[in-house]
Specification:
The relative contact order is 0.16. It is elongated, with a radius of gyration of 18 Å. The protein has one domain (about 20-75). By secondary structure, it is mainly alpha-helical. α2 runs antiparallel to α3 (about 50-75). The longest helix is centred in the C-terminal third of the chain and has 26 residues, at about 50-75. About 70% of the residues lie in helices and about 0% in strands. It starts with a helix and ends with a helix. Component of the oligosaccharyltransferase (OST) complex.
Length: about 80
């Protein structure tokens, strides 16, 4: 299958994002707020259990929240 055939076949199934464009800002903002709260709680009591229960979710929420905020606000030069 050539790249052109793959391109033509993909046009029949358009991409529909999980989070709509209109709600990406609120989702991103809430994820960043959640990351701030959980990172603060993790900073108060750093233990191995805290890494699993607070540190990793805080890092994931921060990463996904930042991506959603970039997608919502756009990048302008």
């Amino acid at each position: 299958m050539s790249l052109n055939e793959v391109w033509e076949a993909a046009s029949a199934t358009p991409f529909i994002p999980l989070i709509a464009k209109d709600s990406q800002f609120s989702v991103g903002f809430n994820l960043l707020l959640l990351a701030l709260v959980t990172a603060t709680l993790f900073g108060l009591n750093r233990s191995f259990l805290g890494i699993v229960s607070l540190g990793i979710p805080a890092a994931l929420a921060s990463g996904f929240g930042a991506v959603f905020m970039i997608c919502a606000a756009g990048v302008y030069v």
